[in-house]
């Protein structure tokens, strides 16, 4: 594994969840709150500090490795990072459950951007209008008016706001 500087530029999922715990320890004053959490596990080079190698034998972080000929390994490394992110989500949900916040919270999870991994001959994001560049996963837990069609960030924020309406909130708490 290269000693590429990119390994030190992101927070691990554990570090993010630690910050969430610190936020939740602050006095809430009995008020609803919104919490924006940015997990960085799926950013290039798709392998970070403290990530276990599950789908790969040897992580690669040197930029010279990220060429089309290595797409299969790059994808496995991306899946490895996804596995780590899934574990971070589980830890987050466990934190919320232990604090009694999971069942009466609306949780929205949105990727900040998709990444192409040579689907259209490029690696990264914001380079083309190919589908691999336009769609990012969206998950909504305890929400209302969920659509099975894709939505942009503006539509998703509207769904989040409707999900926190007084009527829906009382349904969650009963």
Kindly describe this structure:
- It is a single chain.
- The chain has five helices and four strands; from the N terminus they run H-H-E-E-E-H-E-H-H.
- With 174 residues, it is mostly helical.
- The longest helix has 28 residues, at 71-98.
- Mean pLDDT is 78; it is low at 1-6.
In short:
By secondary structure, the chain is mainly alpha-helical.
| Total beta strand runs | 4
**What is the mean pLDDT?**
78
Q: Order of SSEs, N→C? A: HHEEEHEHH
Estimated share of beta-strand residues: 5-15%
How much is the radius of gyration in Å? Answer: 18 Å
Main β-sheet: number of strands, strand sense, barrel status? 2 strands, antiparallel
Overall body shape: globular
Q: What features would you highlight for this structure?
A:
two-stranded antiparallel sheet; disordered N terminus; mainly alpha; 174 residues
Task: Note the topology.
Elements lengths: L12 H13 L45 H28 L8 E4 L5 E2 L5 E2 L6 H4 L3 E4 L11 H11 L2 H8 L1
Antiparallel strand pairs: 1-4, 2-3
